[in-house]
Amino acid sequence: MKIFTFLLGLCSLVVHSQGLLPEVPVPKENPMSAEKIELGKMLYFEPRLSVDGTISCNSCHNVMANGADGRAVGVGVKGQRGDRKSPTVWNSAYNTVQFWDGRAESLEEQAKGPLTNPVEMAMPSEQAVIDRIQQLDEYVDRFKKVFSLKKKKQITIDHVAKAIAAYERTLVTGDSPYDRFVKGDQKALSASAQRGLKLVGEVGCTSCHSGPHFAGQGFEQGQGHFQMFPLIDSEYTEKYQLKKDLGRFNETKKDEDKHMWRVPTWRNIAVTAPYFHNGSVKTLDEAVRVMAKTQLGQDLEKKQVEDIVAFLNSLTGEFPAQQMPRLPLSSGFTLTPDP
Amino acid sequence: MKIFTFLLGLCSLVVHSQGLLPEVPVPKENPMSAEKIELGKMLYFEPRLSVDGTISCNSCHNVMANGADGRAVGVGVKGQRGDRKSPTVWNSAYNTVQFWDGRAESLEEQAKGPLTNPVEMAMPSEQAVIDRIQQLDEYVDRFKKVFSLKKKKQITIDHVAKAIAAYERTLVTGDSPYDRFVKGDQKALSASAQRGLKLVGEVGCTSCHSGPHFAGQGFEQGQGHFQMFPLIDSEYTEKYQLKKDLGRFNETKKDEDKHMWRVPTWRNIAVTAPYFHNGSVKTLDEAVRVMAKTQLGQDLEKKQVEDIVAFLNSLTGEFPAQQMPRLPLSSGFTLTPDP
Questions:
Q1: Region B173-177 average pLDDT
Q2: How far is A291 from chain B, CA to nearest CA, in Å?
Q3: What pLDDT was estimated at residue A132?
Q4: What mean pLDDT comes out for the span B192-197?
Q5: Residue by residue, what is the 3-state secondary structure of chain A?
Q6: How is residue B87 annotated by DSSP?
Q7: How confident is residue B333, by pLDDT bands cut at 50, 70 and 90?
Q8: A222 CA: distance to closest CA in chain B (Å)
Q9: Tell me, what DSSP letter sits at residue B2?
Q10: Residue range B320-335: average pLDDT?
Q11: Measured between alpha carbons, how far is B84 from B305 in angstroms, rounded to an integer?
Q12: What is the band of A13 on the pLDDT scale with cuts at 50, 70, 90?
C-alpha cells in the first residue's frame, strides 16, 4: 500500500512539474534578522508614513485580508483612487519584479513607491518620511540597532525599505491542497481539481504561469516574467477595458512594452479577487475564460472552466497567524498635520 | 524584612485608596464568548464597514498604537477631520459612559456611532452596514453561530455592536508600575512618582479622577461622571480654544450641560497624547498645568508638575500581545463602490 502511494506520488510529480515553493530568496545586501523583521512590521502598519496619517502599506495590502483589499483599485489618502488593483503581499517575495508593470526590481525598491505617490500615501518627499521617523525615539533606536548606525541622521529611505522588505519576506503561505498533493497526498485534490491541473498544462496556461509560484520559472530577483495582455483582441478587450492602461510602456516608453505586464502568481488567486491589473473581472471563472480567450485564443467549455477553477482553488495556502506590532508613540507633538 | 515590606505595602494602600482595576463589567444582555470576541475583532479591523472601504474602528482607535491615533482629532473617509480627539479603546470598558460627551451609555451604543457619522465611516445607514455584512458568508455564519440566529436576515446592527463591544472588553492593560506599587512593590514607583501620587490627592485632582480607573468612582454602566471643563476661566481658555465646543450640551441641549465632559481616565494617559477633547495640548506637563488652573484655580510649581507627571507615567500598563484577525473574502463582487 505504501509503495502504491509512493508510486502515485511520483506519478503526480510527473503530471505537474511546478513543484513546491523554495525558501524565500533573500538578497545578500539585506539579510534577515528578527529585529529587522519586527521593525519592518511596525513600519508596514504605520499610518503616520502617509501625509495625513491615514494610510499604511497595510491599508491596500491588508495582511489580515489575504494581503490585498478586495477592491478593483487601491484607495489612498483623501479617498483618492489609483488605477490598478493592489496585488497581494503574501508570497510577493517570490515575484522576481514588483508592481503590475514590474517597474521595481525588488521588494526594497517597491516599498519606496507608494510613500511618495500622490494618490497613495502622498508624502511630499522621501526625506519627509525620514523626518517623521527621526522624531520617534523608538524607531530611531530600532534603526540604529538593526542597521548598526551611530547617529539618527544616518537613517535613510533605503533602511526603511529594507526593513519593510524583510517583513514582507516572512509573508509566505505554504501547505495548500496543491502542495500536499505534490507531496503525495492524492486526496488533497478533488477529481475536478486534478483534471484542472492537467488542463492548465494542455490548454497552455502554464507556459506563462509556470514554476511553483505559477508566475514563471526561476526566482532570480529583478529578472521579470512579462507577457502581453491582451495578446489577442476579443469582446473582452472592450468589455473589461483591457487596453486602457499601456502597462510597462508607461514606465519604459518603449513601443514593445505596450500592454506588457508582469505574469502574476496563481498562489491564493481564489482569495484575492477581483482580477487583472484594473480589477475589472470579479470572478475567477470569468478570469479563466478571459485569459483562455485573450492569451490562447480558446473558448473553454463550461466544464473545463470549472475544473481549472477547482485547481486554482487548491492553490490557497495556510496563512500563518500574525501578531500585531506595537507602534511607537509621539509625545509632545503630532506627526501628522494638525487641523 | 518581609513584615517591613508588608507594612510598607499597607501604608501605600492607605496613601492612595484608588486601588486595582476590577474585572471588566459585562452587561447581562451581552455575555462574553470566545467566538463573539473573535467576530468582534474582525469587525473592529474591518475597513469595509466604511463607505469606501478605507476606515475601520481601528483607524482612529488603533489597538497597535495604545488604542488611539496620536492626532488632535480623528480623520475619517476622504480625509475629513472630526472635531474631537479619538479616545483610547484600551480600558474603555471601564468608562461608565462613552464618547467625550458621554452620549453613549455603553460600548454597544458607542460602536454604532462612527459607522454612520458622515465624517467618520460615513455609511448611509445602519441597514447599509448590515447589507454589506450579509453579503459575506463567513460573517453570516459567524453571526448565526454567535447569536443563535436561524436566518441571515435576523442579523441586526445590535449584533454588530455587541460583537465589537465584546472584543473591546478584552482590551485591558493591567500591571502598570502603579498597580505593582499598590500590590506592595515599593520600588515600582520612583520617589518623584510617589510624591506625585500624594500631590494628586492634596491638590484635588482625584476628587474627579478617582477610583482605580481614575475617572470617577464606580463602574456601573450608563452612570457617567461628568465635570465642567474649563470650570474657571484663565489664559488657557483662549489659548487652547477650550470653550469652542459646548460638550454635552450639543447632545442634550440643556443649559447646565454646556462644557460638561465625561471625566477621562488617567490609565495610559502618558502614551495617549495629545490631550483634552480637542487634542489641543500636546504634552502631559502642560495638560497638568492647564487642569490645575482651569479646574482647581491653582498655579502649580515646576516641581509639582514634574512629580504629578512622574506619577501619571506610572499608570501606563502592559499591553497584551494581540493576534491579527483574518477578514472574510468577497468573491464575485467588491463590497465597496467600484471606481
A1: 95
A2: 17
A3: 96
A4: 98
A5: CHHHHHHHHHHHHHHCCCCCCCCCCCCCCCCCCHHHHHHHHHHHCCHHHCCCCCCCHHHHCEHHHCCECCCCCCECHHHCECCCCCCCCCCHHHCCCECCCCCECCHHHHHHHHHHCCCCCCCCCHHHHHHHHHCCHHHHHHHHHHHCCCCHHHCCHHHHHHHHHHHHCCCCCECCHHHHHHCCCHHHCCHHHHHHHHHHHHHCHHHCCCCCCCCCCCCCCCCCCEEECCCCCCHHHHHCCCCCCCECHHHHCCHHHCCEEECCCCCCHHHCCCECCCCCECCHHHHHHHHHHHHHCCCCCHHHHHHHHHHHHCCCCECCCCECCCCCCCCCCCCCCCC
A6: P
A7: confident
A8: 31
A9: H
A10: 90
A11: 26
A12: very low
Q: What is the pLDDT of residue B242?
A: 98
Confidence of residue A324 (pLDDT cuts 50, 70, 90): very high
Q: Please name which of B326, B42, B8 lies closest in space to residue B183, comparing C-alpha atoms.
A: B8
CB-based contact A122:A82 (threshold 8 Å):
no
Nearest CB to A81; choose among B274, B324, B339: B339
* Per-residue model confidence as pLDDT tens digits over A218-232: 889 999 999 999 999
Cα dist. A254→A103, A105, A247, A248, A259 in Å?
13, 18, 11, 8, 11
- Residue B17 has a pLDDT of 52
Kindly state whether B337 is in contact with chain A, defined as any CB-CB distance less than 8 angstroms.
Answer: no
Pairing label, strands A226-228, A260-262: antiparallel
Does the distance separating the beta carbons of B283 and A331 come in below 8 Å?
Answer: yes
The whole-angstrom separation of Cα B271 and Cα A329 is 6
Beta pairing partners, A261: A227
Active-site annotation of B, residues: 120
Q: State the DSSP H helix or E strand holding residue B193, giving kind and residue range, or none if neither.
A: helix B191-203
Q: Does the distance separating the beta carbons of B75 and A329 come in below 8 Å?
A: no
**pLDDT score of A7 more than 60:** no
Q: Is B38 helix (H, G, I), strand (E, B) or coil?
A: helix
Q: How far apart are CA A232 and CA A209, in angstroms?
A: 18
Q: How close A154 gets to chain B, by Cα (Å)?
A: 26
In the chain, the amino acid numbered A97 is V
Domains in chain B with CATH codes:
2-22+175-313 (1.10.760.10), 34-168 (1.10.760.10)
Residues of B within 8 A of A47 (CB-CB) are: 59, 62, 69
Write the DSSP assignment of B162-182 as a string of letters.
HHHHHHHTT---B--HHHHHH
Q: Does A27 touch chain B (CB under 8 A)?
A: no
Per-residue confidence (pLDDT) for residue A337, from 0 to 100: 84
Region of A211 (left: φ > 0; alpha: ψ -120 to 50; beta: rest) is left
What would the mean pLDDT of A68-72 be, rounded to a whole number?
95
Strand A260-262 versus strand B260-262 pairing type: unpaired
Read off the pLDDT band of B12 (50, 70, 90): very low
Please tell me the distance from the alpha carbon of residue B84 to that of residue A78, in angstroms, as a whole number: 19
For the record, the C-alpha cell of B180 comes out as: 505593582
Task: For chain A, say whether B332 makes contact (Cβ under 8 Å).
Answer: yes
Give the phi and the psi of residue B323 in degrees, each rounded to 5: -90, 140
CA distance B117 to B99: 13
pLDDT above 90 for B7: no
The answer to whether A331 contacts B69, with C-beta atoms less than 8 Å apart, is no
| Cell numbers placing B303 | 516641581
CA distances from B317 to A64, B66, B195, B306 (A): 27, 10, 20, 20
Q: How far apart are CA B331 and CA B136, in angstroms?
A: 9
